[in-house]
Amino acid sequence: MLDTTNRYGTDVHEHEILLSSAGQQVMMAWEREYMEKCVDALGITPTSDVLEIGFGLAYSATHIQSYSPKSHTIIECDPVSLVELEVWAKTRPNVVIVAGTWQTVLASLGSKWHDFLDATLNWHVNVGGRVTGYLAREIDLSRDGCHVAMTPFEVQVPLNCTYFPYKTALVPLVTLVERKPSITTYALRHDDMKEHAAEHKVVTSHPKLVQLRRRLDLQRSMERAADTSSPPCRPITQMPREDFIRHLKAAANAAKKQVDVAKSDDDIPLEGHRKRSDDRVIG
What we know:
The chain has 283 residues and is α+β, with helices and mostly antiparallel strands.
């Protein structure tokens, strides 16, 4: 069975790095200043209760501790990161560790930011509470009862980083100013979208839909807790550019042949079914 946990190490510049079990870059040292800036935006005081998702390289966690919050809860699902977290938390009595994944409460929408705000603002944040996090590109985080601010932050990304192609990151800050439960849905008609919207996001506050979403979240969480099995993660192997292009062309040719076969099959009438010009397939 293949290892499915993260691993800590150093990159070609001898800087610390967090890798997935498949060898993908998860977190790098260049993110420290950016994560600290996100923490600063929260305005943490000694009376604050802080919830943090993911421990990683401890950049945000350590900076949060510099503000001495009343409580600091960290949710972490990776076994290797949990070991590091437990060692780190031994000298920090206000830290509470929750082993598990918060993604079990998420629906499959276009952006996990919307899912995250649905879950936190409705059921985990008091009025006056603030939410921030990693954001590479600007998306519409607006919703009733909230004030949203976006602050650009210049980042120095090294050439060996494979997951962040930008020179600027964003520091989002969502503040709950009034309790107005709402959930994110998606517009089926273009007319329902906001003008110049980059995605089909629609925020609705219908109480029955909010209640239904909460029930689905709880059901999904219980189902995930009952299913402890997880498929093995296949490691990523590096391939020379020439071989990669050759494999890519072969895959494209194979896909084209399948399309040609499908087109020829369209001419064969199906028993008991007559093709009409208005047939639709929704997938």
